[in-house]
Amino acid sequence: MISRPSCSRLLEVVRSELQSTVAPAVTDPGVAAVLGMIDSVLQNVGARCDHEVAWMRDEIAEIEDVAREVIDAGVDTGSRISNALSRLRAHRSPSDHTADVQAEYDLAGEVLSSALEVALSRGGALGDRVRFVLEHRLRREVEIRGDFTVIGR
Amino acid sequence: MLEPETMPTRLVAFLEREHPGARVSVDSYEQILGGYSRLTARFRTEIDGREQWMVARGGPSPEMSTCATDRAQEWRTMRILHDAGAPLPQPLYFDLDGTHLGTIAMVMDLVHGEPLLYLAARSDDGQRAALADQMAELAVAIHGTDTARLNHLEVPTDWDSYIDSCIQGWRDIEAAHPEADPFIRYLASWLDENRPPPAPLGLVHGDFQSTNVLVDRGGSFVALDWELTHIGDPREDLGWCRWNEAIQPPGLIDRDEEVFCRRYSELSGLGTDIVNPRTVAYFSVLSAIGACEAALPTVAAFASGLNNSLVTGYVLGYISTFHQQFLEVTQGIEAAVSAEGVKP
């Protein structure tokens, strides 16, 4: 396969062409709005495509670490976090294909949700520690999304 | 609607059914940009020589849907509220199964005016202050509408059980979505533990924001898009409007939140312990449930290939923005509570 230029580079050029060549020729506001949405979606895809699998794997590891901390603190009385963590570990991604890693990432999301519910109700440093992982996830989402402007309204 | 070129002919046939024996013509049919959820178009009619401008509002085809709501419920709500004197366009006709207009659609009177957002954008600060006052008046007018005849809407038994149901709604949305969303689970837990003082339940517009308000030629405000209307906490509308202002300025509430809340309190009779910037912030995230409940199923359908709307793909940016707001608002309220030693 041809791996260079990268997918993000190709998308960058497509976006540039849409903005410099296509957009000025569009006079219909409805079509201009569609073009704006296409650019927003391409920007998202461009931000994700070169890193998506690595980012999910990094976050899965981070979630496992914080889940372990909450369990070790002895507050997982209903074993919700432990059970979610067991499911995650029993269903590791068998490959680096995006869909496989997405399935594992989804299970890690459930671990994080359970950890948030358990730790936040207790507050304090443990709650802050779990929320920090959520903040990290948000920073990544915002990086992918970029500046968000409402189009077509 | 789905095939704009056929709409004048369809509308003539539809209006002739509504007005048997009348001479009907339709022209100047034009799609209106603005809403993501529905197809909207304006057109001119003459019925037995009497000119009237109207608006048709219908759903897109299922694979292009961006928002799962019930047109029949919206129609019924609008009819009853219009009769009760609420500030909305007069609903005129309804194609309940899409037989005549190609999709389930309603036809209403066209309000000649401009969106409040556009007017606010070209106003100076003093004019915006006046618009904010008028926005508070509109909100109070909606929230004070008699709901006795709205028996198709669920009436919560009390405030606590209503908030319980909203929080459970958040959990249900997350459970039904094909991907875990820790932000929603975090939000549901936080909302449960940080409840503000209760307010009397009443009519809630459900999508109250300056893009859904038209300013008519006389300067009166008219509210559009009643598809998410329900009986609930009136602060939901204030919170949702505030949320939208953050991504679509200029804001009228966030121009001076204290002033807006005081004005709303004066007009509604609700105390400033009930309506204040912190309680509005609480409801800015709680009230996002209406939009998420409508949008997330279409995102799921998009992910599985059953929905092909570009708008749905674009809406992912909104969802990240929701997540951002969930954290910013909850942490902002916690900081305020910590600094002032008061409850939300």
By helix and strand content of chain A, what is the structural category?
mainly alpha
Summarize the biggest pleated sheet of chain B. 5 strands, antiparallel
Main sheet of chain A?
none
Residues in helices of chain A, as a percent range: over 70%
The pLDDT mean of chain B sits at 92
Low-confidence stretches of chain A: none
Strand order of the largest sheet of chain B: 1-2-3-5-4
User: Could you name the ranges of chain B where pLDDT drops below 50 across 5 or more consecutive residues?
Assistant: none
Number of domains of chain A: 2
Number of contiguous helices of chain B: 11
What Rg of chain B do the Cα atoms give?
21 Å
In which range does the helix fraction of chain B lie?
40-55%
Task: Give an overview of the whole structure.
The complex is a heterodimer of chains A (153) and B (344). With 153 residues, chain A is mainly alpha-helical. Helix content of chain A is 75%, strand content 0%. In chain A, helix 3 (52-72) packs antiparallel against helix 6 (124-145). Chain A is elongated, with a radius of gyration of 20 Å. Chain B has helices at 7-18, 71-83, 116-121, 125-143, 159-176, 182-193, 235-247, 257-268, 277-286, 289-303, 310-340; strands at 24-31, 39-47, 50-58, 91-95, 105-109, 113-115, 202-204, 213-216, 221-223, 230-232. Chain B folds into two domains: 4-109, 2-Layer Sandwich (Phosphorylase Kinase, domain 1); 113-340, Aminoglycoside phosphotransferase (APH), C-terminal lobe (Aminoglycoside 3'-phosphotransferase, Chain: A, domain 2, Alpha-Beta Complex). In chain B, helix 5 packs antiparallel against helix 6, helix 6 packs parallel to helix 11 and helix 9 (277-286) runs antiparallel to helix 11. In chain B, a hairpin with a 2-residue loop joins strand 2 (39-47) and strand 3. Chain B is α+β, with helices and mostly antiparallel strands and 344 residues long. Chain B is built from eleven helices and ten strands. Helices cover 47% and strands 15% of the residues of chain B. Chain B is globular and about 70 Å long. In chain B, the strands form three sheets. Chain B has a five-stranded antiparallel sheet with strand order 1-2-3-5-4, sandwiched between helices. The longest helix of chain B has 31 residues, at 310-340. At the A-B interface, helix 2, helix 5 and helix 6 of A face helix 6 and helix 11 of B.
